[in-house]
Amino acid sequence: MSYETITAEQRGAVTLVTLNRPKSLNALNSQVCEELIEAFAAFEADDSQGCAVLTGSGDKAFAAGADIKEMADKPAAEFYNEDFFSRWTSRLVKDTRKPWIAAVNGFALGGGCELAMMADFILASENAKFGQPEIKLGVAPGMGGSQRLTLAVGKAKAMEMCLTGRMMDAEEAERSGLVARVIPHDELLDEALKTAATIAGMPPMAAKVNKEMVNAAFEMGLDQGLLHERRLFQILTATEDKKEGMKAFIEKRDGNWKGR
Ligand code: CAA
Predict the structure, then answer these.
(1) 66 is catalytic
(2) Ligand 1, from 26, 30, 68, 162: best to mutate by most atoms within 8 Å of Cβ?
(3) Predicted pLDDT of residue 1
(4) Which of 5, 57, 193, 225 is at a distance of 20 to 30 A from 184, taking alpha carbons?
(5) One domain, residues 10 and 79
(6) Which residue, judged by its Cα, is nearest atom 19 of ligand 1?
(7) What whole-number percentage of the chain has pLDDT above 70?
(8) Which is the closest atom of ligand 1 to the Cα of 110?
(9) Which one of 50, 131, 134, 192 is the catalytic residue?
(10) What's the rounded Cα separation, in Å, for the pair 259 and 241?
(11) Catalytic: 111?
């Protein structure tokens, strides 16, 4: 598949997707959205692929936000009637049941920060900078920032960032729970691919279920979430991979996964 605004390639069992508009700091326009949806659908459908990594091209940015040039003259009625930004969550997040990692290599601002937060977790380079500066453009986050950032870092920091537009550096982002780990800039991609390969080596159904369970913590109350967890756990005990995983442990060898 060839794309114009992204690249997608398979590295063993890992799909590497790269935002590829470096001249505009990988700003996210509608074409990027549609191409990402296609690349992630291909990843999801391919049984040889177990985890994806999303990163930005160039040395400066993961993505500096939704494309301001695309939005500047667009009438409000079009934003509303197209339900602008809805496809990011409905297609990219909800339709991707396999795990994926955002490898944030620079600016992740506005929609860029929001896209990174759609990933299952974020690995950040020491140069990463996160922010929701939409207020300075007379708007507000539209791709989930006010919700996901608040869930990740708590009200005080999320509110301050949204109201002032200030950026958070990688160290603060890790301390605040926004990123899983900070990695030296030059090692980010290798480390993200290595982490993704580890995940891709896990039993595939168990990987999807673990992802679904952790996400449920953001979507359900505690009682409902605990019940959901137990039921999914019980369902996994019926899989061949459960039998194989436990047998392999007892026989002191690696598991040989079937995905069922
Ligand atoms: N949309 C479109 N183009 C963008 C862009 C964006 N979000 N961010 C950067 N660019 C373009 C610039 O216009 C510039 O293009 P030209 O060379 O054609 O002028 C190029 O990328 C390089 O950018 P700068 O010259 O500005 O680079 P810098 O190093 O001086 O500054 C920056 C870097 C601080 C990230 C700055 O580019 C910036 O503030 N960008 C905008 C950040 C922003 O406001 N993001 C939120 C967008 S709205 C949104 O995302 C809504 C939502 O919730 C989904």
Answers:
(1) yes
(2) 68
(3) 74
(4) 5
(5) yes
(6) 24
(7) 100
(8) 50
(9) 134
(10) 7
(11) yes
Handedness of CA 139, 143, 147, 149 (dihedral sign): negative
Same domain for 141 and 235: no
82 & 11 share domain = yes
Cβ atoms of 106 and 131 closer than 8 Å:
no
Same domain for 133 and 12, yes or no, is yes
Atom from ligand 1 closest to the CA of residue 136? 44
Between the alpha carbon of residue 147 and those of residues 39, 142, 182, 191, the distances in Å are 26, 10, 23, 28
Domain that holds residue 215: 204-251
134 is an active site residue: yes
Q: Is the CB of 67 within 6 Å of ligand 1?
A: yes
Q: Is the CB of 133 under 6 A from ligand 1?
A: yes
Marked catalytic residue, from 114, 152, 173, 229: 114
Looking up residue 94, the CATH number of its domain turns out to be 3.90.226.10
Nearest atom (ligand 1) to Cα of 145: 53
> ipTM of this model?
0.98
Ligand 1 atom nearest residue 165's Cα: 44
What one-character-per-residue DSSP string does 90-121 give? IIIITT--S-EEEEE-SEEETHHHHHHHHSSE
pTM: 0.96
Q: What is the pLDDT of residues 94-124, one digit of tens each?
A: 999 999 999 999 999 999 999 999 999 999 9
56 CB within 6 A, ligand 1: no
Alpha helices in the chain (DSSP H): 30-45, 68-71, 76-81, 86-87, 111-118, 145-153, 155-164, 170-175, 188-200, 204-219, 222-236, 240-250
Q: How many domains does the chain have?
A: 2
- The finding on whether 217 has its CB within 6 A of some atom of ligand 1 is no
In a domain, 260, yes or no: no
